[in-house]
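Re-running Cation diffusion facilitator CzcD-associated flavoprotein CzcO to confirm reproducibility after the cluster update. Everything else is unchanged from the original entry.
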Amino acid sequence: MTSTTDRLDSSPTDTTLEHLDVIVVGAGLSGVGAGYRLSTEHPGKSWAILEARSSMGGTWDLFRYPGVRSDSDMYTLGYQFKPWREAKSIADGHSILSYIKETASEFGIDEHIRYGTRVVGADFSTAEARWTLTLDVTDESGTSQQQITCGFLYCCSGYYDYAKGYNPDIPGLDTFEGTVVHPQFWPDDLDYAGKNVVVIGSGATAVTLVPSMARDAGHVTMLQRSPTWISAVPGRDKQADKIRDLLPAGLAHSVIRVKNILFSTGFYQFCRRRPQAARRLLTNLSTKILGDEKLVAEHFTPEYNPWDQRLCAVPDADLFKAMKKGKASVVTDRIASVRPDGIDLQSGASLPADVIVTATGLQLLAFGGIEPKVDGVTVELSKQFVWQGAMMTGVPNFAICIGYTNASWTLRADLTSRLVCRVLGYMDDKDFASIVPQPDGPLEERPLLDLQSGYVQRSIDAFPRQGDHGPWLVRQNYILDSITTLRGDLGKTLSGTPRRSVRRAAGVA
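Result of re-run:
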């Protein structure tokens, strides 16, 4: 296979800059998966993964708060090509990080990762059909700015800001004499043994922190403005254990994966199509565990329907068990003001606190902060549409990796990486230097992430849009996506520029 590098090296516009066929941004779960697909489906292409931090793992290396874990089962959050072999289906962060590192090492992906390399600029030249990336490269001697070029840019950096979380204005917080900590930046030396802890928030991070901290704290209170749908799930999949006992590892992994995909997809569709029945099911399950119908009605029965916001999973009902033991409690109220030794609530009640944890959510950030330019002009992301949940109008040779909101992130991430590989192969077959999606008619504009969660609503207007039909609709259905994403005529919605046109523009015969 002739690589893009070989084909373009003769251009008189070339410089001494290093050029690669593909650059992947981010060495987290998605980036490592992308590396595997590139190395196996396009072994003749040159590629690298650029990672701004000093280690791989992304989310699973960054988050160090107590109890950090997945909220999806590892048979689907894990890679299709790398069976999950540990006992727990809902895994802790350390185990997931070890799994990512083991995968990268096993398949030689780690040899392609360049650490301490942050992309601070990305400009696509239509005349040369290549990206010029400006990098901040940090090593022992400090930080220097460098440049590199590539034929195709693939962002696997997720959609939230690694540098800062969301910190709402909490009145009086600056007067608090105890310790305030945000989960995204958990200090290694935080001592909360025997202390009163208030966790502000009720999302996945909060419901993870509360039972974990409750083991050592004097008492942990989860303070929420309004209830959140929470569902107890088994920490260990007994059916999966039986399947693994009966079948070889690879086959067992595939069977379990299909089983869990079908269940999660079916449950999501049930919640969306029969919301009242889903409400009854979830409230009945919580009541059965907690044994207190009034408690469930007050704190665990939201006004919104299940999956209007992401459903929080608690493995082995650990949050509910901590509450039943008296080690944790949930308060639904609003903050009037923080005082030096606690929190006053609008109801008139107060909460004593030695430690306040602001589990108030994430801050969204498109493409890891990269603002793509085309011929020196910054692309207005909010005016672009996403194709197949992966590529974007107005930006050639560019793809993004965005996982599912209602299922394991990796399911869509892997589909996207395989689609990128398919597009690269299509470009080679057609001898295209560049390619970009183009709608064949008008599209009804919709938000890229169709969730009512606060962290989505705060920033989603800065992201590209999805459409209302076909490849422009970002579906939350892996089964349908797995059937359609890797099939169909790419030529119907992708517009390519022949390589001979690029040669002419560059003055090459």
